[in-house]
Amino acid sequence: MNKRFAIFTCLLSLTAIISTANATVNMLPQKAAVKKHSQQTKSKAQQPSNTPLVKRKDVQAFIDMMVKKYDFNRQKLNAVFTKAKVQPIIITSIKKPYEAKPWYEYRPIFLTDKRVNAGVKFWQQNQKALSQAEKTYGVPASVIVAIIGVETFYGKNTGKFSALDALSTLAFDYPPRAKFFRKELVAFLLLTREENIDPTTVLGSYAGAMGLPQFMPSSYRHYAVDFNGNGNSNIFNNPADAVGSIANYLRKNGWQAQQPIAEPAKVKDTKLKGIETTRKKPKFTLQQLQQHGITGADKLPLTTPANFVELASNSAHPEYWLAFHNFYVITRYNTSILYAMAVYQLSQQIQHQYQVAQAQQYNKVAKRATQMSVHATI
After folding, report:
1. pLDDT tens for residues 95-116?
2. Which of 43, 64, 101, 245 is the most core-located residue (most Cβ within 10 A)?
3. Burial of residue 264 (number of CB atoms within 10 Å: 0-12, 13-18, 19+)
4. How far apart are CA 321 and CA 331, in angstroms?
5. pTM above 0.85, yes or no
6. Does residue 151 carry a catalytic annotation?
């Protein structure tokens, strides 16, 4: 009897173990399925919604805010957002900006003979406005011309995206910077109402920047000026207004007239520990940098604020630069150090070629005047 009971007990235990094992095995696919569903849900949440913008709750909440805070017409805004579309390519583009490239790849995009020659031509065609901007705001004509050259190649590449689509896509379907782009979308709608422009017709960059200087809507509203005095500030196709607006932007962001931007640096040794090469606002003085083996800008006072900038080169050694306050101001236009350096170097090349062209023109005029004088004497 005891033997039979023992066998029976063993059988029960074995059955329980098998049942538990089967239950565990059966749960594995369920857990995997739950995990897979969670991943799919997360993936879908990261993708732009297929629901038309105007029918989305977040867009309607935005429209409610615009109606209450800025007294917009609800029906008109609904009509605007009915035409607005989410464009995934905009999100792809903003994730891969030019500024993510190393310097040796970034520089050749903007420092070309074609762009320099086009800059000289733009300067010659807009000499009056550029001269006036330099006198009014203290910003060199060469810097203004270089910015327009980098931004839009003097109006050739002002953007192919609907500004409304770009701003809406980034405001509602790009969480990393949604807060910023919602503010810009507000500014865009205010701007188009103020200027009596149909918001569905404006073209710009994938980020919603517009016109010759590629101003974001908030910058347009704060810095654009009527520089030719015709009654409105038009940075889309009025070079004079674009020139004045860029100079005004830089001046209001701290541009210092007759002050340096950047100069090549020499590194005597490897005492670079603790020297930040990505900081934009000058942190050191030239004297402090000298203590780290970094020299240059010999004509400037040792108390001059400066940063040390190291740029990746495709040669054995990187490029070393001293960057001053006005270099930092250019990064207020675009936060990239690569951008600021491209603007500076392009401005130097344009200025040199412009001066050469001016000298050649002067010599031609002088030669013609001499010939006419000799002919008259004869």
Report:
1. 988 788 999 999 999 999 999 9
2. 245
3. exposed
4. 15
5. no
6. yes
